[in-house]
TrEMBL record:
Cofactor(s) needed by this chain: FAD
Gene3D superfamilies assigned: 3.30.465.10, FAD-linked oxidases, C-terminal domain, Uridine Diphospho-n-acetylenolpyruvylglucosamine Reductase, domain 2
Any one biological process term the GO annotation gives: cytokinin metabolic process
Domain FAD-binding PCMH-type: 58-229
Source organism of this protein record: Bradyrhizobium cajani
UniProt KW Oxidoreductase keyword: yes
Recorded GO MF terms: cytokinin dehydrogenase activity; FAD binding
PANTHER family: CYTOKININ DEHYDROGENASE 10 (PTHR13878:SF65), GULONOLACTONE OXIDASE (PTHR13878)
Protein name according to UniProt: FAD-binding protein
UniProt record similarity statement: Belongs to the oxygen-dependent FAD-linked oxidoreductase family.
InterPro entries on file: Cytok_DH_C_sf, Cytokinin_DH_FAD/cytokin-bd, FAD-bd_PCMH, FAD-bd_PCMH-like_sf, FAD-bd_PCMH_sub1, FAD-bd_PCMH_sub2, FAD-linked_Oxase-like_C, FAD-linked_Oxidoreductases_BP
Keywords: FAD, Flavoprotein, Oxidoreductase
Length: 474
């Protein structure tokens, strides 16, 4: 009789607990024994090497084993077992972290790639497993004419992976972060307890899990708000001679809510200088085109390009760049990204100062510095740290080096730290998907008044301190 997955898990968990190191470190013990199924607990070189890499290609921490749970119950059993063994555990969604945040040195990596089911779609919500990508979520909801109000620029990220950090996109001024659009979460705590949390049930855990860097629980399922999907998006790229004129127009269109999506960037122009661009999208249905006279009234831009795509194609536009980067190899180079938020009151000054210290080589020919204003009043996730102002500017160094140069990546990680220190001193905040080392004290400073919320949730729900060691929080 072929044992089912659950039998194997039970067998694996209980027997591996007694075999402990022999099971992990020793040679394969043959098909007839009670080692866990390969799918559930793989300690082969290939699985462990894959889990020791991420998109950042800077940090490598090799786990003892990789687990691919298919249910929340399996996540719970592995966590209980890992706690008994004193092993650290990290969830892995799509592996797009840039600094080893989904790794667990000599511990267990929980690959959530089998937890991808879309369970239910209702007019105002979707219930989805946390390992699903936003691409999968969007495809399924668009088929019903619905969409999540906030999408990241890249849809190949997992739901759990972005909810663990926040999840920002072009419509965040209107709808906050993805973590603000969560109605309910199914989680497994570090103790291996399965719970459903929401604003009305285990509310403290709900607050500690969203943007909580996976320090007290792993998300297995999320209920996310939906809106009616617009049919089309008309997208504009406006060009400016300098950062000041870009900022002025960005602030104006933000204040007047002219666009449904607003972003912008400073990009290397290939000759040692920069291009300053405002990127904005307007939603529309049928043949009712947006009134461009109103959209652009009083702006000082030189209009560069316009695209007009279905909502789904527009949301997936990053896929073109992904394809290019995969084909030229740059997807696999080190990516020492730095993501921050500047206070609106001094954003122009700080961004100008930082950009003056950078050159095109610091970003790579296809890299960019994201820079745009957003309102903060829709961002209500307690652990998402933003400067305490009505307007803040995401300011991100999206470095895409043309070559894989380890020494250069290390230099850029050090540069990230110096820039972060400058930004922090000016009242800015880190978006914790950045490539730089942070000490426990740095994190306590980062979370500031919210630190006790996270520390207490960790103490209560992951008393063994096993979850997500890659951030070095505790
Ligand atoms: C090309 C690219 C584009 C990006 N664009 C955006 C963007 O537009 N907006 C934005 O906000 N971010 C963006 N990011 C950053 C991205 O949101 C984060 O790096 C995110 O954490 C990656 O998700 P992932 O599924 O790849 O997670 P992983 O790298 O697998 O994990 C990241 C972290 O989340 C934790 N985690 C994963 N799954 C779970 C879970 N189910 N429960 C609890 N914790 C979990 C991991 O343990 C780890 O600490 C981008 C990254 C890349 C590489």
């Amino acid at each position: 009789m072929t044992p089912d997955r659950r039998t194997l898990l039970h067998a694996g968990v209980s027997v591996t607990a007694t075999l402990a190191s022999a099971s992990f470190a020793g040679p394969p013990t043959g098909a007839g024994d009670l080692r866990p199924s390969k799918v559930l607990l793989a300690d082969d070189a290939e699985s462990c090497a894959a889990a020791a890499r991420d998109f950042g290609q800077i940090i490598s921490r090799r786990p003892r084993a990789v687990c691919k749970p298919a249910t929340s119950g399996e996540v719970a059993e592995i966590l209980r077992w890992a706690r008994q063994q004193g092993l650290k555990v990290a969830a892995r969604g799509q592996g797009h972290a840039t600094y080893g945040r989904a790794m667990a040195e000599d511990g267990i990596v929980l690959d959530l790639g089998a937890l991808t089911t879309i369970h239910r779609i209702e007019p105002d919500r979707v219930v989805v497993d946390a390992g699903a990508t936003w691409h999968t979520v969007l495809d399924a909801t668009l088929a019903r004419g619905l969409a999540p109000p906030v999408l990241t620029n890249y849809l190949g990220l997992s739901v759990g992976g972005t909810l663990a950090v926040g999840g920002i996109g072009g419509s965040s001024s209107r709808h906050g972060l993805q973590s603000d659009q969560v109605l309910e979460l199914d989680i497994v705590t570090g103790e291996g307890v399965e719970l459903t949390c929401s604003p009305t049930s285990y509310a403290e855990l709900f607050d500690a899990v969203r943007a909580g860097l996976a320090q007290c629980a792993i998300i297995t399922r999320a209920t996310l708000a939906l809106m009616r999907a617009p049919e089309r998006v008309r997208r504009y790229l406006l060009s400016y001679p300098d950062l000041a004129s870009l900022s002025a127009d960005q602030r104006r269109v933000l204040a007047e809510s002219r666009f449904d999506q607003l972003q912008g960037a400073v990009v290397p122009d290939g000759t040692g200088g920069w291009r300053y661009q405002l990127e904005a999208g307007v939603f529309y249905d049928g043949s009712t085109l947006p009134d461009e006279k109103v959209l652009f009234a009083g702006l000082t831009d030189k209009r560069e390009t316009v695209s007009d795509l279905t909502f789904g194609d527009d949301a997936n536009a990053f896929a073109k760049l992904e394809k290019l980067l995969r084909s030229n190899g740059q997807w696999f180079n080190p990516h020492p990204w730095l993501l921050t938020y500047l206070p609106g009151s001094n954003a122009l000054e700080i961004a100008s100062e930082v950009i003056a210290g950078l050159n095109g080589d610091d970003l790579g020919p296809l890299g960019r510095i994201t820079y745009y204003p957003m309102f903060t009043d829709r961002c209500r996730t307690p652990l998402l740290r933003l400067p305490d102002e009505r307007i803040v500017f995401p300011f991100n160094l999206i470095r895409i080096p043309a070559v894989a140069d380890k020494a250069n990546a290390e230099r850029q990680v050090a540069q990230n730290r110096a820039i972060y220190d400058r930004i922090r001193a000016a009242g800015g905040m880190l978006y914790p998907v950045s490539a730089l080392a942070m000490s426990s004290q740095d994190w306590a400073d980062h979370f500031g008044p919210r630190w006790p919320l996270l520390r207490e949730a960790r103490r209560r729900h992951d008393p063994g301190g096993i979850l997500t060691p890659g951030y070095d929080l505790f």
